[in-house]
Amino acid sequence: MPKEPVLGALMTPPVGSPVWRKIATGQIAIPSSKLAINLLTTNMRIRYSGDPSEANVRALALRAHQFFTQYETVFANELQTILKS
Questions:
Q1: Using one digit for the tens of pLDDT, what is the confidence trace for 30-62?
Q2: In a 10 Å sphere around its CB, with 0-12 CB exposed, 13-18 middle and 19+ buried, how is residue 6 labelled?
Q3: From CA 69, how far away is CA 83, in angstroms rounded?
Q4: Can you give the pTM of this predicted structure?
Q5: 57-72 pLDDT tens trace
């Protein structure tokens, strides 16, 4: 029997969502006291400022999506911020 989706469960936006591009380019800030999020966003800002090409933006957006997909439950508060953006 297939599992029913859990009501109220977080859902990471799909990889093609514009929100990931905004995170990759620094247009969306993710306030957090968690080191992993701060390292991720700082690293992305540095990489974007060094190479604002479309290919790099796509790679950074994919990286952000993969991170939040893998750790969706760990970073639930940060994901809520993303979903409101």
A1: 999 999 999 999 999 999 999 999 999 999 999
A2: exposed
A3: 13
A4: 0.84
A5: 999 999 999 999 999 9
